[in-house]
């Protein structure tokens, strides 16, 4: 079949499409945080992104898919800052030092005001929109714990730690690092820092100390 009559998009058009998609995601992110999921319409997103409503629907079939993209994009931003660090962890020769460095960055990333607002909003909407909270959990905490479990299984094989249940260990590690500051942050709806960076680093360091004491060979 001939493709002579099919017009292919130019390189510049592809670039414009990508910019519009990014603008839509960023606009949606701002609006969801300001108005919540139920209070944000696709019309609102189109106006904030300065694109047509048709363009929004061309990129995202419905509001739920757009919201899911907002969540995964935010998780991707966190992961991009620690990607090389995480990839090197299974081969670590300094478990305490490398875990402390990661735990500090992990906690600081989760405690950023915008991410805390997104988490509060998801918790608030969980009963009305359970699939949204589940999508966030799958792309965030669940995915992170799977990565951590891979590290701990590798260290168990190398004889550096004794980890009979790597996924359970991963969940324990994640909650040891996050629980104290994150629990408080969920109850204080403010963009003002609740903890200084040295305080967050202390929580992270102590979490690693307790974790390694539990799983030492």
What would the keywords be for this entry?
single chain; 217 residues; mainly alpha; 10 helices; 75% helix; elongated
Give an overview in words.
- It is a single chain.
- This protein has helices at residues 11-35, 42-49, 53-59, 63-88, 95-110, 113-125, 130-139, 141-157, 166-187, 197-215.
- It is mostly helical and 217 residues long.
- Helix 1 (11-35) crosses helix 2 (42-49), helix 4 (63-88) runs antiparallel to helix 5 (95-110) and helix 5 (95-110) crosses helix 10.
- The longest helix has 26 residues, at 63-88.
Helix and strand arrangement:
Elements lengths: L10 H25 L6 H8 L3 H7 L3 H26 L6 H16 L2 H13 L4 H10 L1 H17 L8 H22 L9 H19 L2
Helix pairs in contact: 1-2, 1-4, 2-3, 4-5, 4-7, 5-10, 7-8, 8-9, 9-10
**Helix/strand class:** mainly alpha
Query: In percent terms, what proportion of residues is strand?
Result: under 5%
User: C-alpha Rg, in Å?
Assistant: 21 Å
Give me the strand/helix succession: HHHHHHHHHH
Mean pLDDT: 88
Described by the principal axes of the CA atoms, the overall outline is elongated
Helix share of residues? over 70%
- Measured distance between first and last alpha carbons: 66 Å
Biggest pleated-sheet summary: none
| Uncertain spans | none
Summed up, the helix count is 10
Give the strand tally.
0
